[in-house]
């Protein structure tokens, strides 16, 4: 097993299963003597529910995902050439492909007992949009190892707009009004970015608190087990010391018994010899 294989296995699991499975794989790697792999596995972060749901698309709906990412590739090319006809057609393809895949992701999450909230469904669509617009995001979504949803804060190039001939000579809008509208749009864009950043920070804080709570429970459980086993060790140590003392007493008794048995044997043999001699003398006297 290498880190790539371990990550592939872990990010296919639900968020509830992730931490225990990650720690088990890290232990397995450490036991096998691969400390670097164990460290790499422990560094893998648990995905949010939305990230997990999107990750499963690369495993369960690879064809639909590839179709959407192919639309994104062609869209980016059309933006570069400012091909208005292609942009219009690909825009329709993008909407249909995004809706189809987002619906499949939502249905899978619900079938797995982890239905997405309304904000979660929006985050799924934002992640798919990011994958369409940005090549790096597309690679992350295809890999299926997201830790949190993606979003795209840049601007896609605007398509070429063919205006009717009669409007091409129309007087331009007043610069002042355009400036105000541009400034308002920029403020809205910046506010949206800050709101997304706040949401991500709050989500990260909630995940960190959840992880801290889980490890707090693990610490309490480990402390209880340690205290219990320490008490058992003390109990066994006391029993061993008593058994050693009893063994020493029994050994001393055995040694004394051996000496006395040997002495009694010698006395018995001497007494038997004297008795034999006396019996012989008696027989001699009678004859």
Please explain how this structure is put together:
By secondary structure, the protein is mainly α. 81% of the residues lie in helices and 0% in strands. The chain contains 11 helices and no strands. Helix 4 packs across helix 8 and helix 8 crosses helix 9. The longest helix is centred in the C-terminal third of the chain and has 112 residues. It is rod-shaped, with a radius of gyration of 42 Å. About 7% of the residues have low confidence.
Strand content: under 5%
Shape: rod-shaped
Distance between the termini: 103 Å
Count the beta strands: 0
Report the structural category: mainly alpha
Low-pLDDT ranges: 157-175
For the residues shown, what is the average pLDDT? 83
> Major beta sheet, specifics?
none
Summed up, the helix count is 11
String of helices and strands: HHHHHHHHHHH
Fraction of helical residues: over 70%
Q: Write down the Rg.
A: 42 Å
């Amino acid at each position: 097993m290498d880190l790539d294989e371990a990550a592939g296995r872990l990010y296919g699991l639900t968020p509830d299963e992730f931490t225990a499975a990650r720690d088990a794989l890290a232990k397995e790697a450490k036991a096998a003597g691969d400390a670097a792999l164990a460290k790499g596995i422990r560094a893998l972060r648990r995905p949010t529910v939305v990230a997990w749901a999107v990750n499963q698309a690369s495993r369960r709906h690879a064809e639909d995902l590839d179709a959407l990412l192919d639309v994104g590739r062609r869209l980016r090319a059309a933006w570069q050439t400012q091909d208005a006809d292609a942009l219009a057609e690909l825009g329709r393809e993008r909407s249909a492909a995004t809706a189809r895949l987002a619906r499949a992701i939502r249905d899978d999450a619900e079938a797995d007992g982890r239905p997405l909230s309304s904000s979660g469904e929006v985050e799924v669509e934002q992640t798919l949009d990011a994958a369409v617009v940005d090549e790096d995001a597309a690679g992350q979504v295809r890999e299926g190892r997201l830790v949190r949803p993606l979003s795209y804060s840049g601007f896609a190039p605007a398509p070429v707009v063919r205006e009717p001939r009669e409007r091409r000579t129309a007087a331009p809008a007043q610069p002042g009004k355009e400036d105000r509208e541009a400034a308002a749009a920029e403020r809205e864009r910046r506010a949206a970015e800050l709101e997304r950043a706040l949401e991500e920070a709050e989500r990260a804080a909630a995940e960190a608190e959840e992880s801290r709570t889980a490890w707090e429970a693990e610490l309490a459980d480990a402390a209880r087990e340690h205290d219990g086993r320490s008490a058992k060790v003390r109990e066994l140590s006391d029993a061993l010391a008593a058994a050693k003392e009893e063994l020493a007493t029994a050994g001393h008794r055995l040694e004394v018994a051996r000496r006395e048995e040997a002495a009694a044997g010698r006395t018995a043999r001497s007494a038997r010899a004297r008795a034999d001699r006396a019996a012989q003398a008696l027989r001699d006297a009678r004859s």
